[in-house]
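Curious: why this fold?
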Amino acid sequence: MKIPAMLFGAVAAAALLAACGGGGAPALPTNPPPVGGPGNPAVSSSARPAMVGDTFAFSGSSLENDVYTYPVGSPFPNTSTAAKISENVIVTASADPLGAGGTDFHSTTTTVGTSATRTATGDSYYSTLSAGSGTNFVLNAQQSVDDTKNSYAWTYTTPQILDELPESAGATWTNSPAGTYNETDADRATISRTTNADGTYTESDSLPTGAIQSMAFSVQPDGSGTWAITFVGYPYPSIVSYTAPTAGTIAVSVLNPTPTPSPGAIGTPAPNPPIVIATPAAWFSPSPKLYQESDTVSTGVTFPASCAVPSAFGASGNSIVQVINKIDPIFGLDEVTTTTTYTAQGFGPVCVAMNDVQTYYYDYLNDTAGSAGLAAYVGTPQLTKTYAQTLTLQTAGTAIQSSGRSTKSLGIAPISPALFAADRTNFRMHIARERAQARTAFAKMLVRSAPALFFGGNR
């Protein structure tokens, strides 16, 4: 059964001034670009212009580590998987089909691993917005398609600030996670999730194949949540509920719908009582912050050797460090994502290093002994997944249209958002796969090992 997102397959940066807009290694800029946002090179000297037809080439690598710390033995060994990544981005005149607006940076990514080569395409839509005496460079929406024909789309209620221009030491900001995520898989499974500003969310999944017809998720501000599962042949869902932390524990219960009266029966059957299946230790605090973000600019930063930044871009510049911490009470997941963007004077972003650490407190793979045959709800770390990815702008393959790049100001050189698009699209697709695989494994396990609790038993 392939349910929502067996996603086996998931933003743009420094523009360089090439003579006559041709290919080859770009020359160092002698004149900064005109002021303007992507697709509109006449707005402000802080803007990061991009012309339709501009191309960017990136290369880098990724490393994924899985470390199991179950309280009892696991059949899964710790793993470490490396891959090489190459990506090409072209600025296009395509309109945003997601309705958020902005200039389209279209990316094509190839990931070469030890056992397979994967490809994906993506579109990231950027704009620049006036902010005080400067300009905010923002992401409006993203969409991508992997080589198995699964598609993903992210939109934001408020555009995501990626940089405040001009960059200054100590500048800080934060973004709201509010927005939507939609996914359609090759097998017609769909996912639709709406996230609120406080990190709470609701999600609806439709599954055209298998024993489960649909699933729905809801997380509340206090950290409580529900996972509703509708099995094929049953009109009402069974619900797995999670309480907020109370007295150091969380109660996980199963609630089946009220039984249907038998033919000729008198009276209404009594509702099924909730069945407490586990009381794991609270792994997050009461009144939790489900989403936290900080973005900080530092100047005079030496580019790390791991970026392998071409010498044409210099050896140092600025950095933008974004740290996001998310808690998902339903999946028992604490996730910390750190994104460091290195920018070079005269070029803008030349390297993006992203690191995602997912700590799972519940065993949804069901490979340890669990209560009632379900997941092992322990409340201590059982699996830590670390995924790191680095992409660097290359001189070869980057070609910038030279027309419209002159200005009397020397404050800003030709730069664009290509590297943001390149790195973030591929990275986010990978993280989406991780969440989907945990959900899929849990749903399959329910059908396999806990039929009495859900689609039988006390119904």
Summary: The chain has one domain: 19-259+272-454. The helical segments are 418-449, 451-454. Residues 1-47, 402-416 have pLDDT under 50 and may be disordered. DSSP finds two helices and 22 strands in the chain.
